[in-house]
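Posting for a labmate who doesn't have an account.
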Amino acid sequence: GGAFAVLFCNATENFQARASVSGLPSTDELTTVELSKGPALDEAVVPAPLSILCTSQTATVKRILFLDIDGVLHPLQVRLLNEAQQVDTSHCFQHGCLTQLQRVVQTSGAELVLSSSWRVFEHAREAALSALSRYNLSFHAWTTTAGGESPAARVDQILAFVASRPNVMSWAAVDDDDLAPAMAAGSESMMRAVFRQCFVRTDSQIGLDEEKADQLISVLLDGNSSEGNDDSETVIEYRQQKK
């Protein structure tokens, strides 16, 4: 998913720079954007690590859902058009995936925290916020970029965010990458074992579907109900609906 975020950022920065002087429509009005002729992906300049961000909204939440984008809110694919001068974004932020995410948030009351590589670039974050807003969803924080974008680093970044929020009663992470490989089970640290219990992996060719959304809801509600909290009625109601 990281490569697509880089392509998206390069494309929007290049397009918007030209649009500002030529009066072209914004990228919100387009389904394709022109790729910049900048450095290759492995030479792309990544901004300095961002600190773990928090606002007053995230300071009081009881549940957190760490959200990946590519392979979760749309199938993971990079399709180039016009002799590799354009990247097709028409598949991004699919309705079915977003309605499932909306159901997870409405049922669990979870706050979204961006863990996707889209968090690295301002244009990508703005595009994600725009798409989420159509479903009354948003995020106010994202994980640090310290350590890079490897699966192991992403786990560490999520665990660091959780550790900084002692008031969080339950959390879950959704990603199409295998952040909790089976071969590591039994030999991992206690915190990574905890992560395994809170992790839901999507099929990168499908994204978030009903089955995975149900798993996320169960993780978020079960983690909270085990502490005997005052909103246990939400857990009971959800379980009755699933019978």
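Reply:
Got it, the structure tokens are right above this. The first strand starts at residue 32 and ends at 34.
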